[in-house]
Design a protein that fits this description.
It contains 16 helices and 9 strands. By secondary structure, it is of the alpha+beta class. The structure holds calcium ion (CA). Calcium ion binds next to loops.
Length: 414
């Protein structure tokens, strides 16, 4: 989970607005923070091989960043639970801004030419297609052009000291100190998003330790300033996550009338030839490439029958290791296809599924759970387990499976 907490630098942080109780002041919390650094964080940093000099230099002049989201300062009222359940569930189509995809594809194509030599060497070594690497580079940091203004040390240490996820960020600040100990980058240049995701690939420090690469051979693993190091880091991340050399990420497809949409899930892989035997075809009308036909594929219907349908390969789930979202992985796959082949939007449009709140979807999930269906937890987000359970319920109850939550379905499930 830590490795996959890659948050977009384009997100806008909500400022911390809780008022202190009479007992706590910001100055008091800052004093507690300085004590915590010495008495609590330093001993553990020291045990993990960080020298006192590096530790002191990292935190010299560093104060807490009170503008970060999800803070929980000691002695302050607990931050209000975000009203997630009342959030409107956005239909998947909203994720695929055509304007943004076209812009990223145009820049991606030109940068792929510019860095062709480097990308060829990276592809050779790691087996990941250049177009996939460049697509992730574009999505994460606008090809390294996005402003990534925060001090990673300040963000991470603030969140390790006083956030709703101190355990995670404690591990990450310790990893950041190890990076500084190695001397790859000075603390002042170690920049991150407000969520602590660093540099052009948007790695948390633990991901950096596991996956960063010195590809330009200057002795430093520099994901902030070096394009070769950034591109190789992305490729190495995917290779170590199991990227299958020579396979595509997936194909837009058509599931024929009479074949249920309730087929999806990485746990229901079968040879692509078996899917074509069921009548599932590529929407382009072209056959699946020969080398793909005998290899495993999975059905994916992110909007049920209300949007594009896909046959994806295990590499789709490798992209999800970078950011655990079906829509993120589809965005990367589509962008990579545009960069590599000049492709466009998915052929089948995303249709409206009706306005629903996350709490509505959670109720629908609970109702299915009470009837013995696995929805992967009633969290208000319709993942593949929820979608296929909806399709299975519909099939059993004489409805045509659509595999997606709608207001009408919620009514008939009650
Ligand atoms: Ca380097």
């Amino acid at each position: 989970m830590i490795r996959t907490l890659i948050l977009s630098v384009f997100c806008i942080a909500a400022a911390f607005t809780a008022q202190p109780s009479h007992a706590a002041t910001k100055a008091g919390v800052e004093a507690q923070f300085r004590q915590w650094l010495d008495a609590d964080l330093w001993p553990e940093a020291s045990r993990s091989g960080v020298s006192r000099a590096v530790f002191d230099r990292a935190f010299s002049g560093i104060s807490l960043d009170w503008d970060l989201p999800d803070l929980a300062p000691p002695g302050f009222p607990k931050p209000k639970e975000r009203a997630q359940s009342q959030a409107e569930f956005r239909s998947p189509g909203a994720y695929f801004s055509e304007k943004s995809l076209q812009g990223l594809a145009a820049s991606g194509r030109s940068l792929m030419k510019q860095h062709a030599g480097t990308l060829a060497r990276i592809e050779q070594r790691y087996g990941v297609p250049a177009s996939i690497i460049v697509a992730i580079w574009g999505r994460e940091s606008g090809f390294g052009r996005a402003r990534i203004p925060h001090s990673a040390v300040r963000v991470l240490v603030t969140k390790a000291f006083m956030s709703t996820r101190t355990d995670l960020f404690r591990r990450e600040i310790l990893a950041a100190l190890k990076i500084l100990e190695r001397g790859d980058i000075p603390a002042s240049a170690m920049k991150s998003s407000w969520a602590g995701a660093m540099g052009q690939p948007q790695f948390l420090p633990s991901s950096y330790l596991d996956h960063a690469v010195d590809f330009d051979g200057d002795g430093k693993r520099d994901i902030w300033n070096s394009v070769p190091d950034s591109l190789a880091a992305i490729a190495n991340y995917l290779a170590q996550s199991g990227w299958v050399r020579g396979r595509d990420w997936g194909f837009e497809a058509v599931i024929p009338q009479g074949v249920t949409c309730a087929l999806e899930g990485p746990d229901r892989a079968r040879p692509i030839a078996a899917l074509t035997d069921m009548g599932i075809i590529r929407i382009s009308g072209r056959p699946f490439p020969d080398h793909e036909r005998s290899a495993p594929g999975m059905v994916l219907v992110p909007a049920g029958t209300f949007g594009p349908e896909f046959v994806v390969t295990p590499n789709f789930y490798v992209i999800k290791e970078y950011n655990n979202s079906d829509l993120y992985a589809l965005f990367i796959g589509n962008l990579a296809d545009r960069i590599a082949h000049g492709g466009g939007a998915f052929v089948t449009p995303w249709r409206s599924t009706g306005s629903m709140l996350r709490s509505d979807i959670a109720r629908l999930q609970s109702s299915l759970e009470s009837q013995g269906y696995d929805v992967g937890g009633a969290d208000g987000l319709p993942g593949y387990k929820t979608r296929r359970s909806i399709g299975e319920w519909q099939g059993k109850n004489g409805e045509t499976p659509t595999c997606f939550p709608t207001p009408a379905l919620l009514k008939s499930l009650r």
